[in-house]
From TrEMBL:
Keywords, in A-Z order: Acyltransferase, Membrane, Transferase, Transmembrane, Transmembrane helix
Protein name: Palmitoyltransferase
Extent of the signal sequence: none
Enzyme Commission no: 2.3.1.225
Amino acid sequence: RVKMAPTHVLRCCQRGLAWIPVIFIALVVCWSYYAYVVELCIFTIPSIAEKIIYMVFFHLSFVMFVWSYWKTIFTRPANPSKEFCLPKAEKEQYVKEERPESQQEILWRAAANLPLYTRTGAGAIRYCDRCQVIKPDRCHHCSACDMCVLKMDHHCPWVNNCVGFSNYKFFILFLCYSLVYCLFIAATVLQYFIKFWTNELPDTHAKFHVLFLFFVAAMFCISILSLFSYHLWLVGKNRSTIEAFRAPVFRTGSDKNGFSLGFGKNIAQVFGDERKFWDVSNPEFQSLTQSFSYLLSPLSRCGVIRCGVIRCVVIRCGVML
């Protein structure tokens, strides 16, 4: 117990420090709201009509940006269900075994009736010793969250959460709406930035906020645009960031396009079949995912599985992959 206390304290400190990037973003967003609404629209823009138009569109983009950011942060990552845990007797036997060959035999028996079609690089069953669970396809262990996450993409420090199956759509929407938010600010602030820069407008307390607001918005535009473009490419290929760097290994070997079903179906697997709900959270899509299945590409199906369906049960959100 004495040895566990420092470890527990260290873990609490790490969890607290992990919120610093989120708090930083929240402070920047709050300042941007004040700078745009108060310093620009109220104190700087002379036209009433221009103020109203700017305020309406600004708040629309602001609300969608904050909503998607909130959902990305607080949507719990989806984890493998108990179906992928070793039975008690086999778990004890696995722990007692010292030879990797014997441990793999235990895992192969336990995974005989599980829908597993990916392997390790050596062709073995993917097993997490930390979580003591057989990893479903596209599942990886996140050391930051200390859990196995279904269809894990990456752990993002800016949202202090793992981006995976349960919140990947929200993450893409967050990138989209944050880009729209920054572009709108940069575009509407530009003319007043030039006027302050050339001293066409008198020096007031709003000058610093307007000048700095444009620089910050432009800087975030560039960084977010590159990240957003990359993830749109991943969605079109039906890959995660992990799979883009390390192709999944099937029974027939590695295949970077193993989960690709074509551009349209790849997008539908992230955003849903109803296009009218692509820009928001779709309750119907969330419920439909209870019987949702990942399909293998035609090339990966050859010699792998006849029906071509990969199913992974998810706890809490009751999702079937």
